[in-house]
Specification:
mainly beta
Length: about 120
Amino acid sequence: MTGTHTWAIPEGYVPDGSTGPEPEMESHETICVLNTTDEDAAIEITVYFTDREPVGPYEKTVPAERTRHFRFNEFEEPEPIPRGEPFASVIESDIPVVCQHTRLDSRQAENALLTTIAHPLE
């Protein structure tokens, strides 16, 4: 078995503003999910804020033996993620997966890229 069912990313932030061509250089926050199993993974993402109730779940699917990247700034339902506001997230899957967190901050011409493994909660 590779991965676990629940992951947390305590630090999230979609920068407000970008430089360079879109969509490649648009500032964003991303979850990369790896599914090494032979069945599709049903993913639910809940987003937490400092001053209001959580939002979610955002429902996603990662096909069997595949990887998918989900940009928080592209989440629409149940509501868009606000730019320029700190948040955290919990990712829950019906089967074990591996999650990684990445941010591209392109508000300046000198871009910053941050990536780290999400924290497994099981």
